[in-house]
Specification:
cell wall biogenesis/degradation; alpha/beta; Pectate Lyase C-like; Pectinesterase; eleven-stranded parallel beta sheet; secreted; eight-stranded parallel beta sheet
C-alpha cells in the first residue's frame, strides 16, 4: 500500500471514530498534519458564519484575506459560478444552499466551487437541477459528510450523504463520506451510503468515496469515474447503473482475517441488473483493489448482475473463487462476470467460480472504453 492510500485510510478511520462521538476532537490531531485544518470544520460547520471574521481580538487580519480576488468569476454565455466557503468568504456557507439557488432546468453549466473543509450536511440534488458541477479543492481537502444509516433514514437508499437525481452532474476533486459506525457482516440496518447517483450522464474526476457497507450507490443511468478512490467493506459499489471506472482505487476496510481462513467479510460490487433486457453493468479498467479482509469481486444482488474487470491489479484479499452468486445457483446461468488481463495475486484464475468468464479480446472490447457508456454523446473532457 502506498503512502497516499495509507493517508486516506487513516483520514477515514479518524473521521469514523471521532465524528461518531460528540467531542472537540481537534485536540487528537497533530497540529501540523493535513487533517488538523480539515477536521476543525465539523466544529465550525454548525455555527452561522459572517464575512471577514477577525482571527483574534487584537488582529486586523481576516480568514478571507487569502481568498482569490475577483472570485467567483462573472457569468458567461455557458457558465455561472457559485462559491461555497464555510467561513463566509463568498456566496454561501452551505453546499445545499448553493444547490437550491440553481435555476430549475438551467441549460448553463453551474459550477459550485467548494472551498477546503468538511461540510457536515445532507445534500439533495433534485431532477430539476441539471448541469451542476461540484468543484472541490482536492479529495483530501474538501468533503461532504453525513452519518445516516438504513435504520435512521428508513431504508438504505435514503441514507446517502449526497443524493443526485439531476442529469449531467459533474464532481471534481472532492470527497463524499458517510461516517456512520462501521458494521459487522450480518448487522441489520447499518448500511450507510456516502453518495447515491440516480441521474443520467454523471462524471466524477479525482473524487473520494468513503464509507463501509454500501458506500457508493451507483443507482441508475450512465456514469463515469476517473482516478477516484473508493473505500468500503460490504457491497461498497452497488446499484443498477451502467458505469465505467477508469484508473480507480478500490480499498477494502473489512476486518483482517487470519492467513488461510476461508471466512468472507466483504465484496467490492453488488450489481442489480434484474432482467436480460437491461443494458446496465459495471466495467473497471486499469484499476487497483487492495486493503484488508477476505472479499469477493462481486456478488449477484439480482439475477442478471453484470460486472467486468480489465487490466486491474488485485491483491491477495480477493478470495480464490472471486465471485458469489448470492448463494442462488439458478443465477449462475444469467449473471455475467468477466475478467480480462488482470494481474496480482488476487487475479489468479485457477480456482475461480465456474460461471466466471475469462474474456477474450472480442468479448472484452465493449467494456474497455467510454463507448460502453455512450461517452462520445455526452462525456466532456476534465477541463470543460
Amino acid at each position: 500500500m502506498n503512502s497516499r492510500q495509507t493517508y486516506l485510510l487513516i483520514f477515514s478511520a479518524i473521521l469514523v471514530a471521532l465524528l461518531s462521538i460528540n467531542l472537540d476532537f481537534t485536540a487528537y490531531i497533530t497540529p501540523n498534519s493535513k487533517l488538523s485544518t480539515l477536521l476543525t470544520c465539523k466544529t465550525h460547520s454548525s455555527r452561522h458564519h459572517h464575512h471577514h471574521h477577525d482571527s483574534g481580538p487584537n488582529s486586523n487580519s481576516s480568514v478571507c484575506d487569502d481568498f482569490p480576488p475577483d472570485f467567483p468569476p462573472p457569468e458567461t454565455n455557458t457558465t455561472i459560478t457559485l462559491c461555497v466557503d464555510r467561513n463566509g468568504c463568498c456566496n454561501f456557507t452551505k453546499v445545499q444552499a448553493a444547490v437550491d439557488a440553481v435555476t430549475d432546468f438551467n441549460q448553463k453549466r453551474t459550477v459550485i466551487w467548494i472551498n477546503k473543509g468538511i461540510y457536515y450536511e445532507k445534500i439533495m440534488i433534485l431532477r430539476t437541477k441539471a448541469n451542476i458541477t461540484f468543484q472541490g479543492q482536492g479529495l483530501d481537502s474538501t468533503a461532504i459528510v453525513w452519518n445516516d444509516t438504513a435504520n435512521s433514514s428508513h431504508g438504505t437508499f435514503y441514507s446517502a450523504s449526497v443524493t443526485i437525481y439531476g442529469p449531467n452532474f459533474i464532481a471534481k476533486n472532492i470527497s463524499f463520506m458517510n461516517v456512520a459506525p462501521i458494521p459487522k457482516p450480518g448487522d441489520v440496518g447499518a448500511q450507510a451510503v456516502a453518495i447515491r447517483v440516480g441521474g443520467d450522464q454523471a462524471a466524477f474526476w479525482g473524487c473520494g468515496f468513503f464509507g463501509a457497507q454500501d458506500t457508493l450507490h451507483d443507482d441508475r443511468g450512465r456514469h463515469y469515474f476517473k482516478e477516484c478512490y473508493i473505500q468500503g467493506s460490504i457491497d461498497f459499489i452497488f446499484g443498477d447503473g451502467k458505469s465505467l471506472y477508469e484508473n480507480c482505487q478500490m480499498v477494502s476496510i473489512a476486518s483482517p482475517v487470519a492467513p488461510g481462513s476461508k471466512f468472507i467479510n466483504g465484496a467490492v460490487t453488488a450489481h442489480g441488473r434484474a432482467t436480460a433486457d437491461e443494458d446496465t453493468g459495471f466495467a473497471f479498467v486499469n484499476c487497483m483493489i487492495g486493503g484488508t479482509g477476505r472479499i469477493w469481486l462481486g456478488r449477484a444482488w439480482r439475477p442478471y448482475s453484470r460486472v467486468v474487470y480489465a487490466y486491474t491489479t488485485m491483491s491477495d484479499i480477493i478470495a480464490p473463487e472471486g465471485w458469489n452468486d448470492f448463494n442462488d445457483p439458478t443465477r449462475d446461468q444469467t449473471i455475467f462476470y468477466g475478467e480480462y488481463k488482470c494481474g496480482g495475486i488476487g487475479a489468479n484464475p485457477t480456482m475461480r467460480a465456474p460461471y466466471v468468464k475469462k474474456l477474450n479480446d472480442t468479448e472484452a472490447a465493449p467494456f474497455l472504453s467510454t463507448s460502453f457508456i455512450d461517452g462520445m454523446q455526452w462525456l466532456q473532457p476534465f477541463s470543460s
